[in-house]
Amino acid sequence: MSAFYLTWIAVLLAGFGSRDQATVAGLVLRQGARPGVLLVALACAVVTAGLAGWAASLLLATLPPPARAVFAGLALALAGGELLLMVARRSPREPTNSLGALMLVLFAQELTDAARFLVLGLGVGLAAPIAAAAGGALGGGVLAGLAWGAPQVLEWRMVRWARRVFGGGLLLAAIILFLREFSLV
Question: Can the keyword Membrane be found in this entry's annotation (predicted)?
Fold first, then answer.
């Protein structure tokens, strides 16, 4: 159960102000709060978290226990790097009314974002891929609902700084995990 809560909180922190959230918020600000946008965003959050959990279960079956911690550290480092380097656009340049196009864009953005790296890494590192996927899906759903219901929140300047601080924390956690796994600390 701790994998569920840990992943849920990590996804909430890593996903706040992310590219997919900015896309949903930008569409809502331009087109209004259409229920279809929320449903597509929720579906993409659940599917991508499920895919990350599925990948974690495959890796969990093949990796020996010492390698699981190293992989979890690598996933934390990738998530931290994504938070530090990738900046979300303010709003879509060419918004469309197509929910199918929105689904493809959100799916592509979420497949490689920090939140899904965390679901994958925590699923492997904590040996609980189903709980991690469920926590990731819940966190992604909350973030999608926030972007749809209160899109103006993502325009705050503090959002970028919070992402960078959390990204730095993830990189530090990855370094500590690597050092502990190789008995250097």
Answer: yes
How far apart are the C-alpha atoms of 24 and 133, rounded to whole Å? 22
Cα–Cα distance between 156 and 158 in angstroms, integer?
5
Q: Is 89 helix (H, G, I), strand (E, B) or coil?
A: coil
SS3 content of the chain, % helix, strand, coil (to 5): 80, 0, 20
**Per-residue confidence (pLDDT) for residue 93, from 0 to 100:** 63
Nearest residue to 116 via CA among 32, 176, 54: 54
The helix/strand/coil state of 102 is helix
B/e letters for 125-157, b = 16+ CB within 10 Å, e = fewer, are: bbbbbebbbbbbbbbbbbbbebbbeebeebeee
- 91: CB partners within 8 A, 6+ apart: 22, 25, 26, 27, 29, 30
Unique residue bearing structure tokens 């209160």: 150
pLDDT tens per residue across span 134-156: 999 999 999 999 999 988 887 77
**Domain boundaries defined on the chain:** 2-181
| Residue 43 identity | A
* 157: three-class secondary structure by DSSP: coil
